[in-house]
Protein backbone atom coordinates (compact mmCIF):
# COMPACT_ATOMS: atom_id res chain seq x y z
CA UNK A 1 0.00 0.00 0.00
CA UNK A 2 1.31 3.44 -0.93
CA UNK A 3 2.01 5.83 1.99
CA UNK A 4 -0.45 8.72 2.19
CA UNK A 5 2.17 11.41 1.52
CA UNK A 6 3.41 9.63 -1.62
CA UNK A 7 -0.18 9.18 -2.83
CA UNK A 8 -0.93 12.86 -2.20
CA UNK A 9 2.21 13.89 -4.12
CA UNK A 10 1.14 11.86 -7.13
CA UNK A 11 -2.44 13.11 -6.92
CA UNK A 12 -1.36 16.73 -6.60
CA UNK A 13 0.99 16.38 -9.56
CA UNK A 14 -1.69 14.72 -11.69
CA UNK A 15 -4.28 17.32 -10.71
CA UNK A 16 -1.86 20.15 -11.38
CA UNK A 17 -1.07 18.80 -14.84
CA UNK A 18 -4.71 18.02 -15.61
CA UNK A 19 -5.93 21.22 -14.00
CA UNK A 20 -3.55 23.38 -16.01
CA UNK A 21 -5.05 22.02 -19.20
CA UNK A 22 -8.69 21.77 -18.14
CA UNK A 23 -9.46 24.51 -15.63
CA UNK A 24 -9.47 28.26 -16.23
CA UNK A 25 -6.77 30.10 -14.28
CA UNK A 26 -9.24 31.62 -11.81
CA UNK A 27 -10.34 28.11 -10.75
CA UNK A 28 -6.92 26.51 -10.43
CA UNK A 29 -4.84 26.52 -7.31
CA UNK A 30 -1.15 25.99 -6.71
CA UNK A 31 0.10 22.54 -5.62
CA UNK A 32 0.95 23.63 -2.06
CA UNK A 33 -2.66 24.57 -1.45
CA UNK A 34 -3.74 21.10 -2.57
CA UNK A 35 -1.44 19.58 0.06
CA UNK A 36 -2.63 22.02 2.70
CA UNK A 37 -6.27 21.01 2.25
CA UNK A 38 -5.44 17.72 4.00
CA UNK A 39 -5.43 19.17 7.54
CA UNK A 40 -8.50 21.23 6.68
CA UNK A 41 -10.46 18.15 5.60
CA UNK A 42 -9.18 16.24 8.61
CA UNK A 43 -11.14 18.73 10.69
CA UNK A 44 -14.29 17.81 8.76
CA UNK A 45 -13.84 14.04 8.98
CA UNK A 46 -12.69 13.86 12.60
CA UNK A 47 -16.02 15.23 13.93
CA UNK A 48 -17.79 12.66 11.73
CA UNK A 49 -15.87 9.87 13.46
CA UNK A 50 -16.75 11.40 16.82
CA UNK A 51 -20.44 11.63 15.91
CA UNK A 52 -20.51 8.02 14.70
CA UNK A 53 -18.78 6.90 17.89
CA UNK A 54 -21.25 8.74 20.12
CA UNK A 55 -24.17 7.47 18.03
CA UNK A 56 -23.01 3.89 18.55
CA UNK A 57 -23.79 4.13 22.26
CA UNK A 58 -20.17 3.57 23.29
CA UNK A 59 -18.90 5.29 26.43
CA UNK A 60 -18.06 8.89 25.43
CA UNK A 61 -14.88 8.79 27.51
CA UNK A 62 -13.50 6.09 25.20
CA UNK A 63 -13.15 8.33 22.14
CA UNK A 64 -9.46 9.24 21.64
CA UNK A 65 -9.79 13.04 21.56
CA UNK A 66 -6.17 13.64 22.55
CA UNK A 67 -4.96 11.27 19.82
CA UNK A 68 -7.04 13.23 17.30
CA UNK A 69 -5.25 16.42 18.34
CA UNK A 70 -1.91 14.72 17.70
CA UNK A 71 -3.04 13.31 14.36
CA UNK A 72 -4.12 16.74 13.15
CA UNK A 73 -0.81 18.40 14.00
CA UNK A 74 1.22 15.48 12.63
CA UNK A 75 -0.75 15.69 9.37
CA UNK A 76 -0.21 19.43 9.19
CA UNK A 77 3.53 19.00 9.83
CA UNK A 78 3.78 16.34 7.10
CA UNK A 79 1.96 18.53 4.60
CA UNK A 80 4.10 21.53 5.58
CA UNK A 81 7.23 19.50 4.81
CA UNK A 82 5.79 18.52 1.45
CA UNK A 83 5.07 22.12 0.54
CA UNK A 84 8.61 23.32 1.35
CA UNK A 85 9.69 23.38 -2.33
CA UNK A 86 6.79 25.67 -3.24
CA UNK A 87 6.30 29.35 -2.41
CA UNK A 88 5.08 29.82 1.16
CA UNK A 89 1.28 30.15 1.26
CA UNK A 90 1.03 32.29 4.40
CA UNK A 91 -2.72 32.87 4.27
CA UNK A 92 -3.54 29.17 4.04
CA UNK A 93 -1.05 28.27 6.77
CA UNK A 94 -2.58 30.95 9.00
CA UNK A 95 -6.08 29.60 8.38
CA UNK A 96 -4.97 26.07 9.26
CA UNK A 97 -3.22 27.30 12.40
CA UNK A 98 -6.36 29.15 13.53
CA UNK A 99 -8.78 26.28 12.94
CA UNK A 100 -6.26 23.75 14.25
CA UNK A 101 -5.72 25.74 17.42
CA UNK A 102 -9.44 26.14 18.05
CA UNK A 103 -9.96 22.42 17.49
CA UNK A 104 -7.07 21.67 19.85
CA UNK A 105 -8.71 23.76 22.56
CA UNK A 106 -12.14 22.21 21.89
CA UNK A 107 -10.86 18.61 21.90
CA UNK A 108 -8.64 19.34 24.90
CA UNK A 109 -11.57 20.63 26.97
CA UNK A 110 -13.81 17.76 25.85
CA UNK A 111 -11.02 15.27 26.53
CA UNK A 112 -10.37 16.56 30.04
CA UNK A 113 -14.09 16.61 30.79
CA UNK A 114 -14.60 13.05 29.53
CA UNK A 115 -11.52 11.67 31.26
CA UNK A 116 -12.52 13.17 34.62
CA UNK A 117 -16.25 13.87 34.90
CA UNK A 118 -17.30 11.53 32.09
CA UNK A 119 -15.49 8.51 33.54
CA UNK A 120 -16.88 9.25 36.99
CA UNK A 121 -20.42 9.54 35.59
CA UNK A 122 -19.99 6.30 33.63
CA UNK A 123 -18.80 4.51 36.78
CA UNK A 124 -21.78 5.77 38.80
CA UNK A 125 -24.29 5.03 36.04
CA UNK A 126 -22.97 1.59 35.21
CA UNK A 127 -23.83 -0.30 32.02
CA UNK A 128 -27.10 0.34 30.29
CA UNK A 129 -28.79 2.52 27.74
CA UNK A 130 -27.52 5.99 26.95
CA UNK A 131 -28.65 8.79 29.22
CA UNK A 132 -30.72 11.62 27.71
CA UNK A 133 -27.64 13.87 27.85
CA UNK A 134 -25.63 11.31 25.90
CA UNK A 135 -28.37 10.96 23.28
CA UNK A 136 -28.48 14.75 22.99
CA UNK A 137 -24.67 14.86 22.55
CA UNK A 138 -24.84 12.20 19.82
CA UNK A 139 -27.59 14.09 17.95
CA UNK A 140 -25.73 17.37 18.37
CA UNK A 141 -22.48 15.89 17.04
CA UNK A 142 -24.21 14.42 13.98
CA UNK A 143 -26.11 17.67 13.31
CA UNK A 144 -22.80 19.54 13.41
CA UNK A 145 -21.20 17.12 10.94
CA UNK A 146 -24.16 17.37 8.58
CA UNK A 147 -23.89 21.16 8.79
CA UNK A 148 -20.13 21.49 8.18
CA UNK A 149 -20.32 19.28 5.12
CA UNK A 150 -22.37 22.05 3.50
CA UNK A 151 -21.66 25.31 5.36
CA UNK A 152 -18.67 26.86 7.14
CA UNK A 153 -18.40 25.78 10.80
CA UNK A 154 -18.70 29.34 12.09
CA UNK A 155 -22.28 29.58 10.79
CA UNK A 156 -23.41 26.75 13.08
CA UNK A 157 -25.63 28.07 15.87
CA UNK A 158 -23.78 26.71 18.89
CA UNK A 159 -25.68 28.92 21.34
CA UNK A 160 -29.06 27.66 20.15
CA UNK A 161 -27.88 24.10 20.82
CA UNK A 162 -26.67 25.02 24.27
CA UNK A 163 -30.04 26.61 24.95
CA UNK A 164 -31.76 23.41 23.75
CA UNK A 165 -29.61 21.39 26.11
CA UNK A 166 -30.54 23.48 29.13
CA UNK A 167 -34.25 23.60 28.21
CA UNK A 168 -34.68 19.99 27.18
CA UNK A 169 -32.43 18.39 29.76
CA UNK A 170 -32.61 20.26 33.07
CA UNK A 171 -30.43 17.71 34.86
CA UNK A 172 -30.91 19.02 38.39
CA UNK A 173 -34.69 19.37 38.00
CA UNK A 174 -35.08 15.74 36.85
CA UNK A 175 -33.21 14.16 39.70
Q: Give the mean pLDDT.
A: 83
- Overall geometry comes to elongated
The total tally of domains equals 1
Radius of gyration: 20 Å
- Summed up, the helix count is 7
Distance between the termini: 54 Å
Largest sheet: none
Share of helix, binned: over 70%
Number of strands: 0
SSE pattern: HHHHHHH
Low-confidence stretches: none
Helix- and strand-based class? mainly alpha
Strand portion, in percent?
A: under 5%
Notable traits:
175 residues, mainly alpha, 74% helix, elongated, signal
How are the SSEs placed, and which strands pair?
Layout lengths: L3 H19 L8 H25 L9 H18 L7 H36 L6 H17 L9 H11 L2 H4 L1
Helix pairs in contact: 2-3, 2-4, 2-5, 3-4
Question: Explain this structure to me?
Answer:
It is a single chain. The protein has 175 residues and is an all-alpha fold. It has one domain (32-174). Helices cover 74% and strands 0% of the residues. The chain has helices spanning 4-22, 31-55, 65-82, 90-125, 132-148, 158-168, 171-174. Helix 2 runs antiparallel to helix 3, helix 2 (31-55) packs parallel to helix 4 (90-125) and helix 2 runs antiparallel to helix 5. It is elongated. It starts with a helix and ends with a helix.
Quick summary of this structure?
Keywords: Signal. The chain has one domain (32-174).
